């Protein structure tokens, strides 16, 4: 069932990107100075070292901000993460990365994104025996690598609705997993 939900999210995101193409001709935003973007969505963690080797669906979010080097190249920092509850465990993976966004067309909304930095993984559960409740928590850090694409759908001069698809590798101590995330954000240039 979760695979169907995730498939529908990807299909919906692709439709938004396709329908947004005509809006590119109306784009009047200028990439100059500070920019910020945040959003929410969902996605999956997968790979040999994901929780028990199975892919898991969960919620996702991001916050990124930075400066514009040119109309086509933006740089900054990004926090991007994913989390789920599975078998009474709360599991989360996140990355804090230096990020660059490249817009192939100076007047278009489509962009490609890449980043590198740090990643973390946490897993936590609680159990009770009688009147005693115990929390078990495990945290690991490592490297984070990201790539993605998205489209800034212009709603006002410098305000955009931004559907995005991100791939993030979280190589944490003892295990690593990849995240495939679909988010919709709000962006100001």
Q: Could you walk me through the main structural features you see in this protein, from its secondary elements to its overall organization?
A:
This protein is 10% helix and 67% strand. The protein is built from 1 helix and 9 strands; from the N terminus they run H-E-E-E-E-E-E-E-E-E. The relative contact order is 0.22. The protein is elongated, with a radius of gyration of 18 Å. With 189 residues, it is mainly beta. Strands 1-2-3-4-5-6-8-9 form an 8-stranded antiparallel barrel. The mean pLDDT is 84.
Task: Furnish the topology, listing elements before pairings.
Layout: H1 2-20, E1 33-46, E2 56-68, E3 73-86, E4 89-102, E5 110-129, E6 132-151, E7 153-156, E8 159-172, E9 175-188
Antiparallel strand pairs: 1-2, 1-9, 2-3, 3-4, 4-5, 5-6, 6-8, 7-8, 8-9
